[in-house]
Design brief:
single chain; about 450 residues; alpha/beta; Rossmann fold; UDP-N-acetylmuramoyl-L-alanine:D-glutamate ligase; ten-stranded mixed β-sheet; 13 helices; about 15% strand; elongated; ADP-dependent NAD(P)H-hydrate dehydratase activity; NADP; NAD(P)H-hydrate epimerase; EC 5.1.99.6
């Protein structure tokens, strides 16, 4: 699986608006279709490597892209056939169909397959699951190489509906921009390897994928305090906070204090009794406070979260600390990052609907904090509407304690000052890169070892 780094993601509505803007700026929709069809033809030709190609065309503009691709492939000498689900219904698709001079076969159970199948049936235009009858027909091709145009048939492009596609793609060619379905479960795995074809659409990056991870190197004037001082408060389960403190140091913090624990994971980390928590909160050098890892809900946690909120420090709130802080989070704008997994998100935000992107954006707007909605398809959302999608992550992170490591990394990035969304994006990128470096057999402790 692969998704381009730092790529724009557009919903169906946003994609339509971007296409309309192109038309206003002088690039007609027919020209966009020609560019899209050319990108499909190029990708199909590489995948087929000289073998015959069968293009399945639907009645809309996705089918139009398929007809254009068929024409261009035939002009280049490729062995290409076209099968249609129905006659074209849009003007663009009709014009593209008219440009294809070859035969058109009916898309039914008697259709002979080819080594490469190009799925140009529905794309982003799907508003409902495909019929059972069509699902059976498409199932006959599941042993062939599949190239999907924009999204596989039977997939909700916006990622809000849980439709199971009958024909998973080996490669999905996103036209102009990625779509939410490419980066959200359960649809992302069905898209296979995702490629992006820039067809001249100017797409906003308000929603996009993670940039390539990089390390912010200290400059010549750096010292331990201006690199960021992080205060991690330990709950009853000391190991979780120790992981967070170690991660903060490994992720670039210059100074880390582990409050409420007698032992520190590294000699360079200061371990202190919790009696000094209030004193440390008043230390102007503290750039970020991490609270929640290993800390169950209760009066003790509520008291400490209240004290952290009163300090007006930048905060990373994990696990039960998220619920404890919710009543006050939106009162005063502050640099804060919340790191809920699926269960914690559902508990904290029980009545949010739509795709995971929609729900993360709503939670960020409600709390006026950056939300890292964790999972295999992690979504990072800011109160101003910015979103970053971290697909694919690393499956090796599905083990105990890795969330505590992420919280500590967030603390390190946040303690440097600056934008909480940028800090969260950097922390998630660091987290995934560490996991990729380690690979099989990863345990959370490995993420903070050299």
């Amino acid at each position: 699986m692969s998704v381009p780094a730092d790529a724009p993601i557009l919903t169906t509505k946003a994609m339509r608006e971007a296409e309309a803007a192109c038309a206003i700026q002088g690039t007609s929709l027919s020209e966009l279709m020609e560019l899209a069809g050319a990108a499909v033809a190029d990708t199909a030709r590489r995948m087929a490597a000289g073998a015959p190609i069968l293009i399945l065309c639907g009645p809309g503009n996705n089918g139009g892209d398929g007809y254009v691709a068929a024409r261009l492939l035939a002009e280049r000498g490729a062995s290409v056939r076209v099968a249609a689900l129905a006659e074209p219904v849009t003007d663009l698709a009709k014009a593209a169909r008219a440009g294809w001079s070859g035969p058109i076969e009916p898309l039914n159970g008697r259709l002979a397959p080819a080594p490469l199948i190009v799925d140009a049936l529905f794309g982003v235009g799907s508003s409902r699951p495909i019929s059972d009858e069509l699902a059976v027909i498409l199932g006959h091709f599941d042993d062939r190489r599949i190239l999907a145009v924009d999204v596989p048939s039977g997939v909700d492009s916006d990622g809000g509906a849980n439709w199971t596609p009958p024909l998973s793609a080996d490669v999905t060619l996103a036209l102009g921009a990625l779509k939410p379905a490419h980066v959200l479960l359960p649809t992302a795995p069905a898209c296979g390897r995702v490629l992006l074809a820039p067809i001249g659409i100017s797409a906003s990056k308000a929603i996009g994928t993670l940039p390539k991870p990089g390390t912010a190197k200290p400059d010549a004037t750096a010292h331990k305090f201006n690199r960021g001082m992080v205060l991690v408060f330990a709950g009853p389960m000391r190991g979780a906070a120790a992981l967070s403190a170690a991660a903060a140091l490994r992720a670039g913090a210059g100074y880390v204090v582990l409050e409420g624990s007698e032992r520190a994971p590294f000699s360079a980390i200061i371990a202190e009794s919790d009696e000094r928590f209030g004193e440390r909160l008043n230390d102007p050098r503290v750039g970020a406070v991490v609270i929640g890892p290993g800390f169950p809900a209760g009066d003790e946690l509520l008291f400490d979260v209240e004290a952290a909120l009163d300090s007006n420090k930048a905060l990373v709130l994990d696990a039960a600390a998220i619920d404890a802080a919710l009543p006050r989070l939106s009162e005063t704008p502050r640099n804060a990052i919340l790191t809920p997994h699926e269960g914690e998100f559902a508990r904290a935000f029980p009545q949010l609907y739509g795709s995971k992107i929609d729900r993360a954006k709503a939670a960020a707007a409600r709390t006026q904090a950056v939300v890292i909605y964790k999972g295999a398809d992690t979504i990072i959302a800011a109160p101003d509407g910015r979103v970053a999608a971290a697909w694919p992550g690393s499956p090796w992170l599905a083990t105990a304690g890795t969330g505590d490591v992420l919280a500590g990394a967030c603390g390190a990035m946040l303690a440097r000052g600056g934008d909480a969304f940028d800090a969260a994006v950097a922390a998630v990128g660091w987290h995934i890169a560490q996991a990729a470096r380690i690979g099989p057999g990863l345990v959370a402790d490995d993420l903070v070892r050299e």
